[in-house]
């Protein structure tokens, strides 16, 4: 597949965009990445996702697809080469989709809340909520992985991508805020999984390094503090 036939509209630091990039890497699909400015959205983005006007958007030929998990499923079904991303068993596939929805609806909002928390007490409260919300995912990892390296078994799968896309930011939050979210005592399976996931080439090629994410986070915090001061 020529790179010009597959385009991704997004921001490289965005976890939901990272989902798409990892999925394309898993399938060895060449693509063109088009960086978006969300304060000045391109005509291509507005045309490709007129309903939500959000990233990511995958454009395959002249066909746009939006919403990160929908895109990941599309990639898996379109490019059948390489390892499958979604489980082949219908029940396992349904379970993976259930936990992916849990991540988006329950866990990611808490990550956003942590970034906005003001003061040590507020941060500590959100951190405890995050750790509590991770406990069901620890149990899900044990059941889905069946003793193997990833949620998807021997290879990175749908749930690995759904949750793993945020790991770069988790490391950055630890550097900036001193907040440790993955607790080896409470979620040992996820701690080991995170290390293995980040070591995969398909992941390393999609996630920005900690120095770059640190700088992005520092600028965001500076803008937030300046806005609060006005």
From TrEMBL:
GST N-terminal domain location: 4-83
GO BP terms, alphabetized: auxin-activated signaling pathway; glutathione metabolic process; toxin catabolic process
UniProt GO molecular function: glutathione transferase activity
Tagged with keyword Cell wall biogenesis/degradation: no
Catalytic activity, as annotated: RX + glutathione = an S-substituted glutathione + a halide anion + H(+)
EC annotation from Swiss-Prot or TrEMBL: 2.5.1.18
Broad class of enzyme this protein falls into: transferase
Key words of the record: Auxin signaling pathway, Detoxification, Transferase
Start and end residues of each GST C-terminal domain: 89-214
Domain of life: Eukaryota
Gene3D superfamilies per UniProt: 1.20.1050.10, Glutaredoxin
GO cellular component: cytoplasm
Keyword Transferase tagged: yes
Family listed: Belongs to the GST superfamily. Tau family.
Full protein name: glutathione transferase
Biological source species: Nicotiana tabacum (Common tobacco)
């Amino acid at each position: 597949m020529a790179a010009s036939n597959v385009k991704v509209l997004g921001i490289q630091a965005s976890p939901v965009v990272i989902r798409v990039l990892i999925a394309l890497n898993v399938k060895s699909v060449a693509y063109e990445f088009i960086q978006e400015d969300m304060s000045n959205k391109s005509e291509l983005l507005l045309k490709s996702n007129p309903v939500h006007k959000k990233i990511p958007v995958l454009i395959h030929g002249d066909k746009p697809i939006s919403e990160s998990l929908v895109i990941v499923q599309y990639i898996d079904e379109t490019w059948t080469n390489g390892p499958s991303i979604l489980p082949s068993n219908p029940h396992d596939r349904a379970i993976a989709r259930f936990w992916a929805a849990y991540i988006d609806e329950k866990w990611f909002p808490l990550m956003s809340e942590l970034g906005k928390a003001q003061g040590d007490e507020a941060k500590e409260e959100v951190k405890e909520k995050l750790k509590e919300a991770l406990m069901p995912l620890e149990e899900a990892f044990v059941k889905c992985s069946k003793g193997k390296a990833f949620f998807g078994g021997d290879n990175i799968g749908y749930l690995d991508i759904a949750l793993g896309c945020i790991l770069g930011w988790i490391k950055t939050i630890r550097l900036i805020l001193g907040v440790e979210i993955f607790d080896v005592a409470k979620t040992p399976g996820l701690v080991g999984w995170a290390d293995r996931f980040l070591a995969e080439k398909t992941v390393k090629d999609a996630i920005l390094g900690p120095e770059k994410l640190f700088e992005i986070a520092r600028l965001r915090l500076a803008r937030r503090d300046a806005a609060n001061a006005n």
